[in-house]
């Protein structure tokens, strides 16, 4: 009987795609997916180390996974991804039963590592940082969705934000050749995929290594020419290289979704400098103004860190003022978490944990109100929704509009993976609800 594998993913969209690559590699080697860890011979934790909380979650999970090793010596446990890259020694100290340690972008070699660990009965370790662009292509990807696909366009990051561990875990930025990206998207479209999500740490700094004139904006324009492709998303651009050309492409190519996730991190000029983000708050607001004045309406979302070292109550007020000014459609907000190897570790004036928590709560409450008021404006609008999942509400279905708003509505499960027109009839701070166009009562 074929060996069975189970992968648990922690962290971002990029990790989710890395897990699909690992699954593709394992299946290509003859293994089959298992429904859960208890039924798997190979258990892989694909990890995140952006914040300490994510790391602690993995250690807690390893404590539970340990019992699966008791099922027999053929059970293989792997810890892969950013945490393995950053703290392999600590993982082995805390969980000496781990058989595989591999950094991110190792999807192509996981099956080999499983074989090696089984053969040698010693940990199989691959923490090499790949510098050449070749590894960005992956022959086998076992995708979880049949209509939305993540695509790696770049790996790593060459910025040195003071809080961020990513350059240490994923290495310097390497971009994938445009022709290879276009080919993968065209293949996915021929398999029936409607939406692609272009992924990289800072996608807006993309340059085609085969033709340096091809910027991210030009890549988007080329992808938009692919017949049958309905939607293109990307995550995330960096404010430091968000160009007028990129905005112009978003305005003129309806296939490019009208949603921009532009991480700001803080509204305080002083904190932004200390974070080494490489832009001023004035420059950030100038980009936001251009987006808001564009002829095509765009949803704008962001990431914010509260409690960065040296952030005073006045700095935090600047961030709250930024929320009021921009009126974001949604905000991912985090308490600052000190990370190994980052410049911020040497900064003084740490903000106490309780104060970080209090600031986060204030920020999230302020933002919730903004979102509630913003979502009210969608009442009566017709939105095209890519049906994604069974809704977690009393509605049957949920999906996303082009601007990334979650829309809940009723309809048959057969609509999964289809683009459906929905008229908005209600809202909350986090989602919209509506009625399928063909189900609307007469005269509405
Ligand atoms: N590459 C993107 C950028 O720099 O704009 C962000 C990628 S990161 C995986 C996602 C978010 O996690 C960041 O935008 C930031 O808000 C948050 N983050 C990163 N490092 C953090 C830290 N040390 N503590 C708290 N939040 C952090």
Characterize the structure shown.
The protein is an alpha/beta fold and 444 residues long. It has helices spanning 13-28, 52-69, 82-94, 110-120, 166-170, 178-190, 216-224, 244-252, 269-275, 281-293, 313-326, 353-376; strands at residues 4-9, 32-33, 42-47, 76-81, 100-102, 124-126, 148-152, 154-155, 174-175, 195-199, 207-208, 211-215, 231-235, 259-261, 299-306, 330-335, 382-390, 397-401, 406-409, 419-427, 432-436. Strands 2-1-3-4-5-6 form a six-stranded parallel beta sheet, with helices on both faces. A five-stranded mixed β-barrel has the order 17-18-19-21-20. The chain is globular. The N and C termini lie far apart (57 Å). The structure holds S-adenosylmethionine. S-adenosylmethionine is lined by residues 12, 50-51, 161, 163-164, 201-202, 236, 238, 263, 265, 303, 305, 334, 336-337, 339.
List the helices and strands and how they pair.
Elements: E1 4-9, H1 13-28, E2 32-33, E3 42-47, H2 52-69, E4 76-81, H3 82-94, E5 100-102, H4 110-120, E6 124-126, E7 148-152, E8 154-155, H5 166-170, E9 174-175, H6 178-190, E10 195-199, E11 207-208, E12 211-215, H7 216-224, E13 231-235, H8 244-252, E14 259-261, H9 269-275, H10 281-293, E15 299-306, H11 313-326, E16 330-335, H12 353-376, E17 382-390, E18 397-401, E19 406-409, E20 419-427, E21 432-436
Parallel strand pairs: 1-2, 1-3, 3-4, 4-5, 5-6, 7-10, 10-13, 14-15, 15-16, 19-21
Antiparallel strand pairs: 8-9, 11-12, 17-18, 17-20, 18-19, 20-21
Helix pairs in contact: 7-8, 11-12
The structure holds S-adenosylmethionine.
């Amino acid at each position: 009987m074929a060996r069975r594998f189970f992968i648990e993913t922690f962290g971002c969209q990029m990790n989710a795609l890395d897990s699909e690559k690992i699954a593709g590699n394992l299946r290509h080697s003859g293994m089959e997916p298992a429904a859960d860890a208890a039924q798997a011979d190979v258990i892989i934790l694909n990890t995140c180390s952006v914040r300490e909380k994510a790391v602690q979650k993995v250690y807690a999970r390893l404590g539970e996974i340990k019992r699966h090793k008791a099922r027999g010596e053929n059970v293989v446990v792997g810890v892969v991804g950013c945490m393995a890259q950053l703290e392999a020694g600590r993982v082995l100290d805390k969980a000496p039963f781990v058989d595989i340690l591999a950094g991110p972008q190792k999807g192509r070699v996981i099956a080999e590592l499983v074989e090696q660990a089984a053969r040698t009965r010693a940990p199989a370790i691959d923490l090499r940082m790949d510098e050449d662009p070749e590894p960005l292509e992956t022959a086998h990807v076992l995708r979880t969705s049949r209509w939305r696909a993540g695509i790696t366009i770049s790996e790593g990051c060459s910025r040195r934000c003071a809080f961020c561990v990513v350059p240490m875990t994923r290495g310097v930025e390497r971009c994938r050749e445009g022709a290879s990206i276009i080919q993968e998207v065209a293949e996915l479209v021929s398999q029936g995929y409607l939406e692609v999500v272009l992924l990289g740490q800072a996608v807006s700094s993309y340059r085609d290594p085969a033709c340096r004139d091809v910027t991210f904006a030009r890549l988007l324009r080329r992808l938009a020419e692919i017949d049958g492709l309905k939607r293109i998303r990307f995550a995330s651009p960096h404010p430091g290289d968000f160009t007028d050309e990129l905005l112009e492409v978003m305005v003129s190519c309806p296939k490019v979704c009208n949603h921009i996730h532009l991480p700001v991190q803080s509204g305080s000029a002083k904190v932004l400098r200390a974070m080494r983000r490489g832009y001023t708050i004035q420059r950030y607001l100038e980009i936001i103004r251009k987006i808001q004045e564009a002829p095509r309406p765009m949803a704008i979302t962001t990431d914010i860190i509260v409690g960065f070292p040296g952030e005073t109550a006045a700095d935090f007020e600047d961030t709250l003022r930024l929320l009021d000014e921009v009126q974001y459609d949604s905000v991912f907000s985090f308490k600052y978490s000190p990370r190994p190897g980052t410049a911020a570790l040497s900064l003084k004036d740490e903000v106490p944990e309780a104060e970080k928590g209090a600031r986060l709560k204030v920020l999230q409450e302020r933002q919730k109100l903004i979102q509630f008021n913003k979502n009210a404006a969608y009442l009566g609008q017709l939105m095209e929704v890519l049906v994604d999942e069974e809704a977690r509400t009393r509605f049957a279905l949920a999906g996303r509009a082009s601007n990334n708003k979650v829309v809940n509505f009723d309809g048959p499960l057969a609509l999964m993976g289809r683009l459906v027109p929905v008229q908005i009839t209600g809202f909350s701070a986090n989602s919209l609800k509506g009625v399928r166009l063909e189900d609307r009562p007469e005269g509405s």
